[in-house]
Design brief:
With 207 residues, the protein is mostly helical. It contains 5 helices and 2 strands; from the N terminus they run αββαααα. It has a two-stranded antiparallel ribbon with strand order 1-2. Helix 1 (3-111) runs antiparallel to helix 5. It starts with a helix and ends with a helix. The relative contact order is 0.07.
């Protein structure tokens, strides 16, 4: 066998092997480079996503903190406003009580003596009779006594016995001073109730 004819195919095979190795090495390097690039890009994208998530969480935390501070501020303002309303209501009630005390002290001056004319001497005030029936109706109107309606129409007087009707026509013993004192106290309660209602409306309405 001719050596030259043998070496030529061997060299060709060797060259093919070298070429294949070079190609494989190049492909490996390309793969490694691509894989590394993909890893780097993936890591960068993941880091960017983490950063965006952290920013979103931080923004939500800041928004929640701002909302909590705003709510706390509103609560403080509401409490301060309600305290102011309560203080104003208490002051109104104190003024109402001062008025009641003052007017109560005036009762004797206006309910014991009177003058028939400006230049006349004062004399005892004539008795003003309030019947038991008058007091009953007065108490029923103010709620001091439960109203018990009788038969409708003119039947009320007819339905009552003669003795009951006579009892309602007796002097109740209520004097003008006592009636005026009751009215003064009742008026104070009415003013206090009206002031409480106004304060409640202001509190609910936010005024």
């Amino acid at each position: 066998m001719n050596f030259a004819s043998w070496i030529k195919p061997a060299a060709s095979l060797l060259l093919l092997g070298v070429a294949a190795w070079i190609v494989a090495t190049a492909l490996t390097e390309v793969y490694r480079a691509g894989y590394g690039k993909a890893q780097a890009e993936s890591a960068l994208a993941l880091e960017k996503l983490r950063g965006e998530h952290q920013e979103q969480e931080l923004a939500r935390a800041r928004a929640a903190e701002a909302s909590a501070k705003a709510a706390a501020k509103r609560l403080q303002e509401e409490q301060a406003r309600n305290d102011k309303l309560a203080s104003a209501l208490a002051e109104q009630q104190r003024q109402h009580r001062k008025t009641t005390d003052y007017l109560t002290g005036e009762i004797a001056r206006v309910a014991d003596l009177y003058r028939k004319a400006l230049d006349a001497d004062p004399e005892p005030l004539p008795a003003c009779v309030f019947t038991a029936g008058w007091v009953r109706i007065y108490d029923e109107a103010t709620g001091a006594r439960a109203a018990v309606p009788a038969a409708a129409g003119p039947g009320r007087a007819a339905a009552q016995g003669a003795e009951a009707r006579a009892a309602e026509q007796l002097d109740s013993g209520l004097g003008q001073g006592a009636l005026l004192a009751h009215h003064i106290r009742y008026a104070e309660q009415c003013r206090n109730t009206a002031a409480q209602l106004d304060a409640l409306i202001d509190a609910v309405g936010g005024n």
